[in-house]
Design goal:
By secondary structure, this protein is of the alpha/beta class. 45% of the residues lie in helices and 22% in strands. The chain folds into two domains: 1-39; 44-169, Glutaredoxin (3-Layer(aba) Sandwich). It is globular and about 45 Å long. The model is unreliable at 17-38 (pLDDT under 50).
């Protein structure tokens, strides 16, 4: 009689085991796919990394100047910078840098220290202002050559095709 009472409990334990094993295998399969996808993703650097990177292997640079509150910055991250077509087009020829246009930390770049400027409700970072020629708009992508000299600025949201066209027209 006690064996009959334990039978439903045994079924529950076996079911939990198989379900958890199936979930584990599914999670690992998804994780494996993410790894594959991420290896084909853009590798983002900080602006402070650029000088050392250029000494090892010179490349042109795309500096994505964004803010946390900017809707179109987020759209560009998802639609353009995660698009395999754009990644395959630009990944070998460019380093990619993210620069928060409102970061409050000091940044040492090219022998100078740039700081946050508080202008009341919202401020800006001096380096973002310098790179954007004083015209702060987000998103903006600053294109630098291998010597870290500014070549051009792409202002506003750019689709994959628009950004590829913009980069193709640059004479660098």
């Amino acid at each position: 009689m006690t064996h009959l009472k334990l039978f439903p409990l045994a079924l529950i334990i076996i079911s939990i085991f198989f379900l958890s094993n199936a979930c584990y295998n599914e999670a690992n399969a998804v994780k494996g796919n993410e790894t594959t996808t991420k290896s084909n993703a853009i590798e983002w650097y900080s602006i402070e990394d650029l000088e050392a990177l250029q000494k090892k292997a010179p490349k042109k640079v795309i500096v994505d100047v964004y803010t946390d509150w900017c809707k179109w910055c987020k759209v560009m991250d998802k639609k353009t910078f995660e698009d395999p077509e754009f990644i395959n087009f630009a990944k070998d020829d460019y380093y990619f840098v993210k620069l928060d246009g409102e970061t409050q930390r000091d940044i040492n770049y090219s022998g100078k220290t740039y700081s946050y400027v508080n202008t009341g409700r919202r401020g800006y970072h001096q380096l973002a202002s310098v790179l954007l020629g004083g015209r702060l708009s987000y998103p903006s992508c600053v294109i630098l050559d291998e010597n870290l000299s500014k070549v051009n600025v792409a202002r506003g949201y750019k689709s994959t095709q628009d950004f590829k066209t913009f980069l193709s027209k640059l004479s660098i």
